[in-house]
TrEMBL record:
Pfam families: Flavin_Reduct. This is Flavin-dependent reductase. It comes from Cellulomonas pakistanensis. The keyword Oxidoreductase applies. The lineage of its organism: Bacteria, Bacillati, Actinomycetota, Actinomycetes, Micrococcales. Keywords: Oxidoreductase.
Length: 190
């Protein structure tokens, strides 16, 4: 019998206790490459400067109260800013914004230098031409594995209203699947 480690959180303790086989990282990544995901840019202000990154991990958590979340690797260059941010803007990209997604996914450059964004009155950057955005307050940062799950409470949004058929002129969302960008719309409806 081994002594129980007390320096682990509940999830880490549960994972450490498991003696069953698990997927290797490359196998896990392969599964999620086959799962299409919407593309968003999470943007915020940190020490007076805009910070942002591409995220395909944004999820809706609850409508009442309005909660959403995203995950971010603890090694991300954006993590120090996210770890201190009270609020963020989650920008859901349009299908013609694959270049924006690629820019915000690239390390080592000023992701905001090319323009194409404005600041809300509260300071969070909003990407011009995004399908929609949500301004949200960070309510929790939960360490999970080598990442953080960042939970948010939606405060404000800009999103089209009405049925999709009435919004024909609006851009469709950008989707990422198997390392390639895709668009969805009326042409892909079943």
């Amino acid at each position: 019998m081994t002594a129980e480690r007390t320096d682990l959180g509940p999830l880490e303790r549960l994972l450490a206790e498991q003696d069953e086989p698990q997927l290797a990282p490359h196998e896990f990544k392969q599964v999620f490459r086959r799962h299409p995901a919407g593309v968003a840019v999470v943007a915020l202000r940190h020490r007076g400067r805009p910070v942002g990154f591409t995220a395909t991990s944004v999820i809706s958590v609850s409508a009442a109260p309005p909660l959403l979340a995203f995950s971010l690797a603890s090694t991300s260059s954006s993590w120090p800013a996210v770890s201190a941010a009270p609020t963020v803007a989650v920008n859901f990209l349009a299908d013609d914004q694959d270049d924006v997604s690629a820019r915000f996914a690239t390390s080592g450059l000023d992701r905001f230098a090319a323009g194409g964004w404005t600041s809300l009155a509260t300071g969070e950057p909003v990407i011009d031409g995004a399908v929609s955005w949500v301004r949200a307050r960070v309510v929790q940062r939960t360490p999970v594995g080598d990442s953080y799950l960042v939970s948010l409470r939606a405060l404000q949004a800009s999103a089209p209203d009405g049925p999709a058929a009435a919004r024909v002129a609006e851009p469709s969302p950008l989707v990422y699947h198997d390392r390639t960008y895709h668009r969805i719309g009326a042409h892909s409806a079943l």
